[in-house]
Design brief:
The protein is of the alpha+beta class. It contains three helices and 16 strands. β14 (about 210-220) and β15 form a beta hairpin.
Length: about 240
Amino acid sequence: MRNRFTFLALAGLTGLLLLACSSEEKIPQAEPQATNMPVGDTTEIAEGSPVAIASKMNVLYMGVENPIHLEEAGDDPGSWVVAAFGAGSNIRTTGPGTYVVSVSSPGEVSLLLKRGTVSKRYSFRVKYLPDPVARLGRFTGGVISGGEFRAQGGLIAAMDNFDFQVNCEIQGFNLTKIGRDANPVEVGNPGARFNEQSQKLIATAKPGDFFLFTNVKARCPGDGAGRTINSLAFQIR
């Protein structure tokens, strides 16, 4: 009797194993999925397929023309059809495999590259231009002689260490004089150039006085409104 039960148990176990093996063989294999390659990643890209690269940075900026070029696009990079979608984007060609993309809103831009039955899609983040730096001539603050201070005509907005040539404008600021023996005096100044009130206040500068430029507003290409940037503080020597 024990041998009969043992035989039946082994038979049952063998059946389970065969059923498992049979089931495993029938599991369908997943089809390989198309990969949207990130910008700059050339892993697993077939020979002759393009990689879309932002020529200046790995993002697109509002208010400027962002150059794009195709790498590894084969012998005829101009044979690829390139379209841009999202963030109010517009694209135009500047040569074989080279383009400029303009965007009008933050978000993300998708570039679709197509040639025949082959297509690839790349995504770029869209950002506002970085803040410009307010300057009084070449100065951003500190101790300055009365002559140098009075010789300046207004503030400028400089884009330091930025790859694009961008012109930002000063929209206005407040100028405050803190004299050694008088109460602070503040005037408003629309625009970048010193107005009459600012010129009169600056003309009174003498050693030991402090002058502050605050609430400095600037506007850059792509901005919907002005932005507040850095303040400046000067002491007259």
